[in-house]
């Protein structure tokens, strides 16, 4: 059994723990920013393949106390890197620190890289090359006030990079944040779902994959495949099982629209490239005027949206004028629906004149946001 740490966007840790349990982890331990767990390698493969929430799954290979940079160098030097990957593979080292007394993260990163190269030179007579863009092996160092932990990244590229979204519009939502919002909303495949500000289609792509039971990692490769201890047979079995479980693409009652024709075209291109276009109905339309899809009163659904945040003062003024009619439009067109808006703008509920039934703290990258839940009823929704 090995020790791992799965990272995720802040606010989604309980959902990540659910993913890990589904992959076969028996005792996940949640902390801010991720989940510690102990598992065998096939379970690690399954977590990479199936988790919609994880950003990376890191394998812990060394841990020790330190007082200065030389202690961290020594810890990395004593770690048997050549047992896990070859000198011909490229590496990249990243370091994060919390409450560390050491002055320079760049210098610590350099010391860890030097130690790995020195260990290879001692064992093989050669040293690996560095590739910061597309390395074969990623090494992560985490430094707390007095301890250093070294990890090998089993994921490679971040897991939210599903390999589906080629065309993007401004400020796209990360795929694992979108998947987390869909889960937090309680949406289940078969229930009408609308993203009225669909941009490049991130919500639509995630929902369609969920509806068609497509594993989020089925179309990409992983860091663990480049390690010496990679077990091909269990991985091949998992991948075959995931492919067999997929459903054929068909209408999944998922709807997307946007006032920008460029955004609609980007969504269409991304869905088409992913083979998911039959599952989604796309249209052009303004959120202030569109009607709820399947508007028969018997099919209340879920609406999810990621409105612009307004970083500049002029944009904030525009949003302040946009929110009141948005609140009116939701009351008028979405009675019976549950609407979820992700925003970094804390003025949103007050200016929409709606009282959220729930607020969930989430991070989209480094931006602190709230996921506001509005349960729409006819007429006023204020308490």
From TrEMBL:
Transmembrane helix keyword on record: no
Domain of life: Bacteria
SMART domains in the record: THUMP
Keyword terms, alphabetized: Methyltransferase, RNA-binding, Transferase
UniProt-listed CDD domains: THUMP_AdoMetMT (cd11715)
One function term, GO molecular function aspect: RNA binding
Ranges of residues in domain THUMP: 43-154
Organism: Candidatus Propionivibrio dominans
SUPFAM superfamilies: S-adenosyl-L-methionine-dependent methyltransferases (SSF53335)
Signal sequence bounds: none
Record InterPro entries: DNA_methylase_N6_adenine_CS, RlmKL-like_Mtase, RlmKL-like_Mtase_CS, RlmL_1st, SAM-dependent_MTases_sf, THUMP_dom
Name of the molecule in the record: Class I SAM-dependent RNA methyltransferase
């Amino acid at each position: 059994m090995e020790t791992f740490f799965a990272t995720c966007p802040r606010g989604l840790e309980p959902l990540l723990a659910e993913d890990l349990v589904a992959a076969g982890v028996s005792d996940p331990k949640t902390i801010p920013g991720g989940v510690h767990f102990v598992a065998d390698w096939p379970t690690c493969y399954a977590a990479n393949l199936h988790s919609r929430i994880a950003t990376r799954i890191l394998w812990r290979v060394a841990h020790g106390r330190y007082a200065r940079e030389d202690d961290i160098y020594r810890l990395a030097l004593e770690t048997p890197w050549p047992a896990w990957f070859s000198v011909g593979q490229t590496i990249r080292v990243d370091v994060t620190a919390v409450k560390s007394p050491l002055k320079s993260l760049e210098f610590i990163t350099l010391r860890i890289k030097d130690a790995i190269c020195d260990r290879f030179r001692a064992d093989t007579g050669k040293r690996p090359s560095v590739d910061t863009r597309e390395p074969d092996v990623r090494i992560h160092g985490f430094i707390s006030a007095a301890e250093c932990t070294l990890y090998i990244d089993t994921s490679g590229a971040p897991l939210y990079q599903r390999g589906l979204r080629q065309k993007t519009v401004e400020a796209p939502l990360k795929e694992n944040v979108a998947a987390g919002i869909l889960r937090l909303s309680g949406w289940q495949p078969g229930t009408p779902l609308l993203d009225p500000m669909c941009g490049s289609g991130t919500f639509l792509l995630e929902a369609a994959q969920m509806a068609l039971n497509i594993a989020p990692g089925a179309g990409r490769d992983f860091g663990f495949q480049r390690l010496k201890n990679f077990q091909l047979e269990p991985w091949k079995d998992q991948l075959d099982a995931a492919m067999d479980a997929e459903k054929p693409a068909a209408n999944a009652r998922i709807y997307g629209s946007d006032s920008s024709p460029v955004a609609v075209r980007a969504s269409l291109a991304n869905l088409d490239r992913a083979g998911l276009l039959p599952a989604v109905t796309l249209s052009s339309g303004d959120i202030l005027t569109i009607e709820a899809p399947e508007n028969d009163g018997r099919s209340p659904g879920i609406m999810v949206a990621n409105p612009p945040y307004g970083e500049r003062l002029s944009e904030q003024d525009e949003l302040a004028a946009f929110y009141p009619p948005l609140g009116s439009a939701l009351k008028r067109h979405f009675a019976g629906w549950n609407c979820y808006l992700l925003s970094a703008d804390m003025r949103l509920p007050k200016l929409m004149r709606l009282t959220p039934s729930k607020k969930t703290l989430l991070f989209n990258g480094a931006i602190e946001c709230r996921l506001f839940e509005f349960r729409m009823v006819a007429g006023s929704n204020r308490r």
